[in-house]
Amino acid sequence: MFKPTELFDLSQSEHAAIFDGCAFAWEALKNIKAYLKAHLRPGLHNNCDGVAYIGKDVFIGSGTVVEDGAMIRGPAIIGQNCQIRHNAYIRENVIVGDNCVLGNSCEFKNVLLFNNCQVPHFSYVGDSIFGYKAHVGAGVKISNVKLVVANVTVEVDGKLVDTGLRKFGALLGDHTDIGCNSVLNPGSIIGRGSIIYPNTSWRGVLPANHIAKNKAPVDVVARRTGGQ
């Protein structure tokens, strides 16, 4: 499930060429910067609702609305009919498909979002690829750097494979859904159609069409009132 076509419908991105020559989907993360340098043609065809900062190396498609307080540093390509909501922070090397939501107080860096992705509230997304109709709930964080100084590894056929990437957040396959306040640790790979329940700290590979449930027990006790 590590090939690009095993995670993503490549027809749902105008930028599928970024995966050319990639045996593993995460290899495309190294291509984002060069792809933007070769293909970016700056132009702003969006509407602004308020005052936003948009850098000079940015393309935004028609029908996209950029709300007050958003900051788009670039280089970036943002597709058509997207919502860039209040205080979104879009840093360098970001590619966004059509009909996407980049939400309030969310931060993006070195990412590729396929069409119809939704990252609506209070999330960090770095060094990651989100497939068609991937969705993350409020407060989801994509951790992209290991605490120890080392490259991110992925377990393939029972063996750890060095990705060659010091920074690698997550690959979310098409139609995945990550519950509110979950953390995806470096090198997380979530197969197509899979779900992670809220408040989960996830590490590793979740196969397609599976659910990761956080069953941490909740301790319920009687409430003490004053004087007792």
Describe it.
- The chain is mostly beta strands.
- The protein has a single domain (4-212), classed as Hexapeptide repeat proteins (UDP N-Acetylglucosamine Acyltransferase, domain 1, 3 Solenoid).
- It is 5% helix and 34% strand.
- The protein has 2 helices and 26 strands.
- A hairpin with a 2-residue loop joins strand 17 and strand 18.
- The chain is globular and about 65 Å long.
* Class based on secondary structure composition and strand pairing: mainly beta
CATH superfamily: Hexapeptide repeat proteins
Report the average pLDDT across residues. 96
Order of helices and strands: HHEEEEEEEEEEEEEEEEEEEEEEEEEE
Gyration radius, rounded: 18 Å
Strand content: 25-35%
Number of domains: 1
CATH class category name:
Mainly Beta
Overall geometry comes to: globular
Largest sheet: 12 strands, parallel
Helical element count?
A: 2
